[in-house]
Structures are given as C-alpha cells and as structure tokens.
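Lab intake sheet, docking and co-folding queue.

SAMPLE TYPE: protein with bound small molecule
LIGAND NAME: 2-acetamido-2-deoxy-beta-D-glucopyranose
LIGAND FORMAT: SMILES
REQUESTED OUTPUT: full 3D complex as structure tokens
PRIORITY: normal
SUBMITTED BY: R.K., bench team

The fields below were copied directly from the construct record.
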Amino acid sequence: MVGEKQRSRLWKAGILKRMFAGIMIVGISLFCYLVFFQAPGHFVYTHANTHAQCMIPQINPFDKDILAFFWQPDPIVCTKNTELVYIDDNDTVHINYSRTNLEVVNCSCQNIIRETENDNEVVFRLPVWFSKSSKLTSDFIKVQCYDYSGNLLYERLHYHIHKSRKNFTSDENRFSVLILGIDGIHFKGICKSWRENTFPNMVAFLAGRIGYSKDFPVDPNVFFDKHPFIWNNFSKDGAVTMYAEDWPRLSTFNYAVPGFNQSPTDHYFRPFYLGINKMRKYQSTINEALLFLENQNIKVGETSTLCYSDKPKHVLQLDYFKRFLKSYRNKLKFGLSWLNEISHDYVNFIKLADDDLLDFLVFLKEGGYLEKSVLFF
Ligand SMILES: *[C@@H]1O[C@H](CO)[C@@H](O)[C@H](O)[C@H]1NC(C)=O
Ligand SMILES: *[C@@H]1O[C@H](CO)[C@@H](O)[C@H](O)[C@H]1NC(C)=O
Ligand SMILES: *[C@@H]1O[C@H](CO)[C@@H](O)[C@H](O)[C@H]1NC(C)=O
Ligand SMILES: *[C@@H]1O[C@H](CO)[C@@H](O)[C@H](O)[C@H]1NC(C)=O
Ligand SMILES: *[C@@H]1O[C@H](CO)[C@@H](O)[C@H](O)[C@H]1NC(C)=O
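RESULT FIELD (auto-filled):
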C-alpha cells in the first residue's frame, strides 16, 4: 500500500521532473536561438576545386573585424577541494594522510571498465576496500572514502597508466609519433552538424583515406574497428599506442557513429570521460549551455565547466599523455591526444590553456621525449 505521505512525495517528484524537463527544453531552445542568431560571424573558406591541392587562405588576424571577436575570458576556476588519494608510478593508489588530518577510515576503489560492443557505456566494478594503499589493475578508477562514522568524505574518478604486460619494441632504431591536436573553431556548430570538418580530416591523417568514400565507409551501425587506422600499423610493429579525446558525446568517431567495439589502442581515455558523465548526468546534459554562458563570462556555479574536480580537463588529458610517455620510456610509441572542448565552439578559451601547453612542451623537451619522436602539434 502506498501511504499518503509517500504518494504526495511521488506526486511532488513527478512535478519536479516535469518542471525540470520544461526548464531544460526552454533552456535548450533559448540556447540554440542565441547561438544561431546572436553568435558572431564566421568565416568559411571553400576551395572551388575539391580535388586540388589544399590551400590555406591568408587572413590578417589583426584586422579590426577579426579583433572584435577576441577578448580575455576569466581564468578557469576549479574546486579548491584537492585530491585525497594519489597514484604513484608503481600502479598503486595511496590515501594522502597529510591531506586527511587522519580523518579517513577506509576507501573503496572500483575499476572503470568499458562495455564491449559499446563505445558509450562504462561499468563501475565491485569495490575493493583499502585503508592505506591498493594495487591497481586498470587505467581508470572510482574512489570513495568514508570517515569513522561511515559518512562519504570523498568521491572522485582517477586515471593513470596501468602498464601493459606486452613486450613492446624499443625505440632504439625508430621514431615514435606523438600528436597533440586542438580542434579548430567553428561557430554556430551546435544546432547544425558538428563534424563536417574534423571527421574527414582525422580520417585523412589517421587512415590515409577519404571519409565516406568506399575506402572508408561510414555506417551508423558499424564500428570503426576494421578501418585501417595508423595506430594498427604501429601496434603491428610492436609499438604501444594511446588515444585520448575529450568531449565524449561529440568526439570524432562517436558523434552520430558508433565508435569502436574493442578499445582501439592499448590506452584509451574515453572510458574516463564516460565515467565522469555517468557520475554527473545532470551537468553533462547541459554542458554546452554552461560553456555558452561561461564564454560570456557569466558565472553559473562556483567553478568552471571546463574543470573536472580540482583541475581543468585539458590538464588531465595532458597529464595522461605525460604518464603514458613516462610509463613507456624507451619504447616505440604512438600517442594521440585531441582536445575539443576548450577550442571547438569559442575562440577565446584556448588562451587559458597557454601555460599548460607550454608546460607540456617543456616536459617533452626536458624529459628527452623529443629525442626519439616526431611531434605533431
Ligand atoms: C611496486 O609494487 C610492488 C608490489 O606491490 C612492490 O613489491 C615494489 O616494491 C614496488 N616498487 C616500488 C619502487 O615502490
Ligand atoms: C598530499 O597532500 C598534501 C596536502 O594537501 C599536498 O601538499 C601533497 O602534495 C599531497 N601529496 C601527493 C603525493 O599528492
Ligand atoms: C569502511 O568503513 C565504513 C565506516 O566505518 C564501514 O561501514 C565499512 O564496513 C568499512 N568497510 C570495510 C571493508 O572495512
Ligand atoms: C622482449 O623482446 C626483446 C626483443 O624482441 C627480447 O630480447 C626480450 O627477451 C623480450 N622480453 C620478454 C620478457 O619477453
Ligand atoms: C598500414 O597498414 C595497412 C594494412 O596493413 C596498409 O595497407 C598501409 O599501407 C599501412 N600504412 C602505412 C603508412 O604503412
């Protein structure tokens, strides 16, 4: 039997749900309207002869019509709530007791594993409990920590490189290939098609094929696994491979297409982002609207949409790349890191990543990683 109190609660929940849906619909419509009609102009360059050699138009970036679109966005502010656990270079997660004031009793660690035959779902596996440290068995984990009375103190996803047991080739006689891409900008993208540019370009440089042609058919029901991506060639030659791209809903091989059945590379960052979205369904749904507001320097919450917990997402992705390089020092490598969110829709955010990109390049140089690799940036 449903009690009076419970019924009224259910009724309220129903109303709230509908109100929420209503607000969402109004919000999204308003957002599309703004993007369509209020966004600044954009420049489209099309070569009349699509088979001719590629040409890059010469535009004066200091033209006053162009300068009008540039302004300084507010710095990215993430939560001050720093990480309670850290992962060392030896596959082990530790509780950071100098950060806890000896408050924590125990933590649980769940592997985040991608579902097979589905590039859009991850599962959080059974928790493993620890009160000091724990050996890791996958790249991505969900950590929850509880105090003495069982209150949840901390909940966050963490990443690292869980070193494969494969015996990879050394880079003694060959160069590794490292690619750090920042997706181009085009306004008005969101309510139209996102991928009219990136997809064919990525297919060209990653598979040497023309996207949508009979050499690289695109079928919304067929995974891309059989396509001749260059990372397969590297794997065949004994290299260790990595692919990281942010913005899971819109990433190149997943937007309106099914992505990969098996993990395409030895290390694949996508499940980490899927895990984040699984944890914050509400925020990930309105992510684009929040970015739009943030671009206008309008504050919605305390922290930026460009963050995950205490760091900007592009920093996490660069850090994953660093860990990949450190873990496989002296091995032949193929690494691809592709950033979308910070650059795709709004030209001005990318400035905010300047220092982090510089830091990454310095890391490559000083760590000696450029001695035996070709970097595309
Ligand atoms: C790495 O972990 C293994 C297994 O827990 C341990 O035996 C070894 O001493 C650790 N190495 C370092 C450098 O901490
Ligand atoms: C542990 O926490 C302290 C205090 O917040 C911090 O200074 C330190 O860097 C942390 N250690 C690691 C290894 O993350
Ligand atoms: C962890 O601590 C909580 C709170 O004290 C307790 O309920 C739980 O049983 C503990 N779990 C393990 C595996 O010790
Ligand atoms: C790894 O490969 C190298 C060269 O191919 C070989 O010399 C070495 O014995 C291999 N190591 C293991 C653990 O299989
Ligand atoms: C990569 O491998 C495919 C399939 O074996 C081959 O057709 C292609 O030529 C290779 N590409 C390069 C650049 O070696």
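REVIEWER NOTE: Confidence is low (pLDDT under 50) at residues 187-195.
SIGN-OFF: pending second check by T.M.
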